[in-house]
Amino acid sequence: MAAPASASADTSSGPASAGAPRAPRNVVFVDGVRTPFGKAGPKGMYAETRADDMIVKVIRELLRRHPELPPERIDEVAVAATTQIGDQGLTIGRNAALLAGLPKSVPGFAIDRMCAGAMTAVTTTAGGIGIGGYDIAFAGGVEHMGNHPMGEGVDPNPRFVSDNLVDSSALVMGSTAENLHDRFPKLTKQRTDAYAALSQQRYEAAAEAGKIAADLAPVATRSGEHGWGLATADEPPRPGTTAESLEGLKTPFRPHGRVTPGNSAGLNDGATGCVVADEHTARELGLPVGMRMVGYSFAGVEPEVMGVGPVPATEKALKRAGLTIDDIGLFEINEAFAVQVLAFLDHFGIAEDDERVNPWGGAIACGHPLASSGVRLMTQLSRHFAEHPEVRYGITTMCVGFGMGGTVIWENPHHDETAGGAK
Amino acid sequence: MSTETDFAALFPDEVVTEARTRLVDVPGLSGKLALVTIDNGHDHTKPSTFGPAGLSALDKALDEAFAAEPAAIAVTGKPFVFAVGADLSGIGQLTERAHAHRIAKTGHDVFRRLTESRIPTFAFVNGAALGGGLELALSCHYRTVADNVSAIAFPECFLGLFPGWGGTQLLPNLIGADQAVSVILENSLNQNKMLKPGKATGMGIFDVELESPDFLEESARWAARVVNGEQTVRRPEIDRGQAWDEAINRARELVASKTHGASPAVDKAVELIDLARNGDLDEGYAAETEALADALMSDELRAGLYAFDLTQKRAKKPAGAPDKSLARDVNKVGVVGAGLMAGQLALLFARRLEVPVVLTDVDQERIDKGVAYVHGEIDKLAEKGRLSADGVNRIKDLVTGSLDKRAFADADFIIEAVFEEMSVKRQVFGELEQHISSEAVLATNTSSLSISEMGAELDHPERVVGFHFFNPVAVLPLLEIVRGERTDDATLATAFAVGKKLKKSCVLVADAPAFVVNRLLTRFLGEVIASVDEGTPFEVADRALEPLGLPMSPMVLLQLVGPAIAQHVNETMHAAYPDRFGLSDNLQRFVEAGKTSVWTTAEAGNQIVDPEVAELWKQGDAPLSEEQVRDRALRALAEEARIMLDEDVVVEAPDLDLCMLLGAGWPFWLGGITPYLDRAGYSESVNGERFLEPGVASVPNS
């Protein structure tokens, strides 16, 4: 039954109208950190480390970096994980808050939108901040793909196949990337390999400049065989990668296909987190403002070509914000697959080596622990903003398994009209 | 190398603690941190210890660490455990002093590498650090500790040893002699008290306490700051003059009051702390090594290790107990009697079993008083911070009183603590049987009456079991569980299950007069009193047992038990065994005069025999020397213990020892009692045989 049309129009009575109509509040990205990302599997550095312990290190590192943030002022701990069982279960946000030693008065919850989990943790808490449900929230994600391989415990409804709802390839992310090559014949393996090599090279340069390590929370890694270690750097990157060195790699998803381990992100373990806040509260507490949220959108696409998701998500977000692609000066796009990044760049007419896109390389180099990646993009974009006052707007965008895309548009608080350089 | 193989073979069953070195990067540290993990490959329920192979493994790991020329070296443990010291089971098997000497020296040599390193060394104490584990930490230049570590201590003196891998030398030089005496002697001899990390850091044992969730990460960062000179580490100035003298004097007094010189290793600890004043590690470690070799080859230590094993293992798996699966659930408890003992029992059952406990007595007034007592004790626990507000509500709600015995209809376990008189107890059980289910257990807290007799006239005598606690109930860990002639396995299994939930150490005993602890104490005390009756001065008789280092002298024990109760037990024992348990007319007069203590404090402040006691005690003219009194009391103990084993009062001699350790607080260096009777020759002299084979609680004859 529909609600009476007059109910929402009448603002003079009822509990919702006790005060004057409220204006949405500005939501800011304060700061973010992450664990180093590891290779999933028994030989990976996190093979004997728990996922919940990883997100705990992130929460504590943020609090350590921001002594001006009283822990009891955190109104929510939103933590994403794609597989929410075992060490990623027990309502991971609440579980992590308690383990991190936050006051018991601080609540938490678990969230899932596959690869866009942490991004959704940010947009959801941002929405809450916007209407005054929270002042400050922790948002992040964790995925230990060694402990929880993709698809662990899933039970797809047989109607997906019987009713031809999706092609069986929709559940295999590598196959959806191959499908994307089919849809856009101009996206050749040569181009994806070149893009992948560029990602590795940009990451290597950023790492050497100390830009990557600055955002990492060290993690003590347990190993019964080797003793304790200390993770302080990403495990997946392959320095010295060239397009030529990627040419001969296997194509596990199709014989003579185009998608290889070299031009895709790997299977990884890692956790990320950030503090988002009402701008007024942030200023009051003296918290830094890394970015200001302009808007966001999620959009669905055919699950068989989930990699194209960032295109409609970005178009939708731009439209809602009243901006165009030309207003965007910096892009952090998740590199689940090189082909998916190229589909986005081609669509918007951006060169594949454009310096505004993933300036420190991307997931092809550093890894993509599913639900945690969204906040890595945001943390890095906030660092780029600080380095580029001439830029006013940037976006973080990613494709999402089972046919979705998500885009968040951010404004640079350091923006200075008079600053030189590119937009 | 063959020598190495031989060394490792000294502890044939060693669970080898491995040490792994990893070179790791630490933010802010230029150069690597060599991180050494101590890990025996088991989970925290089997903590890492050091035997010969473990020491060799650590030595190799340090070779690797030093070879890498790192910026710093740090040692840490597996999750929840840093290291808990020497492998005690291996020590118990050493047969030659030369081997003991080698173990002692190797520990020093390996640990000292960390002390004398030119590269800064750190201990990241992430979990339990006991004995040699704590010495390993002290051997490093700097120490961090996690705020969740629950066990930090030098338990050596408790066992009849001293911290002999550097502890007596390093600790006083780090935190001062007085605090070192507290940790090494006072805590250890005070029921092996542990230090909390905050307290230990305050004392200066650790340089910084860090929170557990990211302890290793933050320890590594702290270490980097120390190496970089960004973090200063303050150490107190040590007073090596008067303060050191005073500490040693305090230590001597402490030891005199606790062991009376009965544990040579404890005396040695004082000597070594005194020696540490020079701060000369060569001299100090050499002395520690020699003394440790002696201590490892001493019967006192072997008895201590035997006693420790009994309290840790045998106490948890009672000999002769029926299969656990036979135990019935206990979801409601009844307590008959509302006096002091009944109140203590009600409180214990409510707190530990967390099921309803109903008190009953002959009138409502007593019941109300009993319940009020329990509720008052619960409030006291809350004041001490040992119960939360919700916990207070919960436990108070569980304890109620009822004059109507029908309140016991759904009780599964009913214990009586009424007047110690057979007819009264039989009447109580008889009346209860009208109201309760046929399977409910009827337990009695009698200290000397026959369980079989108590149940003889019941419809279900198989449900009666003895449940003998020691006063104060909440403190003393022993519970003698008495099987009557007709007690069935299900009842007995239920009694053991309840005892375990009450966190008591249960020993199965037969339905024999006064069971174990009271019987041995009564026999022993009877001989001392008899020697006084015959003419031995109180001063002589009461000092006679001092060389054993018992927790109290015989006359003080008499005072603690209460002369009237002691005399009551004497009568029971005399009736059962008139030729071994005498009755003292003097003691009877003493009781009738309402006296509680032989000793009183004179005006000058010294202890003297109460003149009224001296007046009423009619002594003979055949005084004995201290040695003769001691000999008489110990021969009697040897005889009684053997008879008890012959009568099958307990399964084996170790059960007698366990009872004396936990019920009478007899010391580890005696191993309870039978190891001492064996090594002092009483067993063979009186009974013609030992209680335990050589090597079980003594150095084997090689």
Automatic annotation (TrEMBL), chain A:
**Its Enzyme Commission number?**
2.3.1.16
Q: Where is the active site?
A: C115, H368, C399
Q: Which residues form the Thiolase C-terminal domain?
A: 292-411
Q: Supply one GO molecular-function term.
A: acetyl-CoA C-acyltransferase activity
**Where do the Thiolase N-terminal domain residues begin and end?**
27-279
The domain of life is Bacteria
Cross-referenced Pfam families, in alphabetical order?
Thiolase_C, Thiolase_N
Q: What class of enzyme is it?
A: transferase
Q: Which UniProt keywords apply?
A: Acyltransferase, Transferase
Q: Name one GO biological process term.
A: phenylacetate catabolic process
Would the keyword Acyltransferase be found if you checked this record's keyword annotation? yes
Segments carrying the region annotation (Disordered) are 1-22, 228-265
Keyword Transferase applies: yes
Q: Offer a single GO CC term for the protein.
A: cytoplasm
Q: Which PANTHER family match?
A: 3-KETOACYL-COA THIOLASE, PEROXISOMAL, 3-OXOADIPYL-COA_3-OXO-5,6-DEHYDROSUBERYL-COA THIOLASE
Give the family per the record.
Belongs to the thiolase-like superfamily. Thiolase family.
Name used for this protein in its record: Acetyl-CoA acyltransferase
Name its species.
Actinopolyspora biskrensis
From TrEMBL, chain B:
Q: Name one GO biological process term.
A: fatty acid beta-oxidation
Sorted alphabetically, the keyword list is:
Fatty acid metabolism, Lipid degradation, Lipid metabolism, Lyase, Multifunctional enzyme, NAD, Oxidoreductase
Q: Which reaction is catalysed here?
A: a (3S)-3-hydroxyacyl-CoA + NAD(+) = a 3-oxoacyl-CoA + NADH + H(+)
Q: Does the keyword field hold Nucleotide-binding?
A: no
Q: Which InterPro entries match?
A: 3-OHacyl-CoA_DH_NAD-bd, 3HC_DH_C, 6-PGluconate_DH-like_C_sf, ClpP/crotonase-like_dom_sf, Enoyl-CoA_hydra/iso, FA_oxidation_alpha_subunit, NAD(P)-bd_dom_sf
List the GO molecular function terms: enoyl-CoA hydratase activity; long-chain (3S)-3-hydroxyacyl-CoA dehydrogenase (NAD+) activity; NAD+ binding
3-hydroxyacyl-CoA dehydrogenase NAD binding domain: residues covered = 332-511
Q: Does the keyword NAD apply?
A: yes
Span of domain 3-hydroxyacyl-CoA dehydrogenase C-terminal: 515-597
Pathway named in the protein's UniProt entry:
Lipid metabolism; butanoate metabolism; Lipid metabolism; fatty acid beta-oxidation
Could you say which protein family the record assigns here? Answer: In the central section; belongs to the 3-hydroxyacyl-CoA dehydrogenase family.
State the name under which the record lists this protein: 3-hydroxyacyl-CoA dehydrogenase/enoyl-CoA hydratase/carnithine racemase
